Amino acid sequence: MLRSRKSISLIAVVATIVLFCGLVLIASGKRAAEKPTLSIVCFQGYAEPSWVEPFEEKYDCEVKVTYIGTVDECFTKTKAAPEEYNIVSNYTGN
Q: In the chain, what are the domain boundaries?
């Protein structure tokens, strides 16, 4: 009787551990499937597919490019949503 209780307890502990590990693996798999995103605001020509695509492959990420036409538009976009962009490329010439 004592031996069967120990066996049942051991099976319950092992089943709990296996269930917990399975849930952790499932949860981490969902997070791993979400690719990180690099968000850039820049002028046309600053983020060309010829370097963006190899970058995405190398770092297993997605690059989201928002093109602007003027410096004023750049300031407006970044001021409206400062948390949206990781890189802001601007022109400082005359």
A: 1-34, 35-88
